């Protein structure tokens, strides 16, 4: 799949866990609702990966 889509595929995997739905129910982003939770950290890692890749593409 990576051969076909290339840079459209990211390395970060975000787990689908009920706690994310709980945060949505309370109207909060998961990183505010529970910063130390595994899904929160995964979203932060994903955002970092997106920004890093954008910087790489701008530099190329």
Descriptive overview:
The structure is a single chain. The chain has 60 residues and is an all-alpha fold. It has one domain (2-59). 63% of the residues lie in helices and 0% in strands. The protein contains four helices and no strands. The protein has helices spanning 2-5, 18-25, 30-33, 38-59.
Proportion in helices: 55-70%
Fraction of residues in β-strands: under 5%
From the alpha carbons, calculate the radius of gyration and give it in angstroms.
14 Å
pLDDT averaged residue by residue = 91
* Structural class by SSE content: mainly alpha
Provide a concise account of the structure shown.
The protein is mostly helical. It is built from four helices and no strands.
Q: Characteristics of this structure?
A:
about 60 residues, mainly alpha, 4 helices
Helices and strands in order:
Layout: H1 2-5, H2 18-25, H3 30-33, H4 38-59
